[in-house]
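Quick illustration, no need to memorize.
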Amino acid sequence: MSPTYDKIGARYSRQRRADPRIAAVIRAALGNVHTVVNVGAGTGSYEPRDIDVVGVEPSAVMLAQRPSHAAPAVRATAESLPFGDKSFDVALAVLTIHHWGDQRRGLEECARVARRRVVLFTWDPESSGFWLMREYFPETLALDRRIFPSMTDIADVLGELEIEPVPIPADCIDGFLGSYWRRPRAYLDPAIRGGMSSFSLIPDPTVGLARLDRDLESGAWTESHADLLETDALDIGYRILIANRNA
């Protein structure tokens, strides 16, 4: 295995941690259950403490960053979960499906091992994204629209979906791409960008970063996006999906 995060995840845990408001949405989606398999678990940011959780993660680099209090985890891929049918109440996957080599197979595996439901936190490629993607890194928007499965594609595998928008708080403490939509200067920090896989997947971000820097210095960004400075949370395409299974 040579998963993406073996290459880009060395400092992941420094920038990525659970935002309590997003964690609450994920926990509510899991429901009143006892066991969860967290597929693409990474460092375990959104694993609830009140449920028995087993993580699945293909990257040794990411597994090494799981804290001592994290749930037990095995090294495996979403496409080949090392568990029997209906082994868990819920299969959970948080901002990971776009990195799976075979998304359909991974979703089928999640459905196979889940007794009650599959819960996904992902991004809707039919959304318009947000200003960073549209104005400074359109190549990132184009890439994400290719690698994130559509809601229809997911429903084709999992069946009927409950879909809930997850507005991102302006002071989100997680460090994924959309977290800093109201804090544009953060994107100029290479340490912060190091927690965002999108920047590792485009050839050269320097042109877009230079334009953003100029627009911040001149005040052009603030002039164009003054409305954002009065906004507490923004829907930029992140979604919770729930697919209920037949027990």
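The two ends are 33 Å apart (CA to CA).
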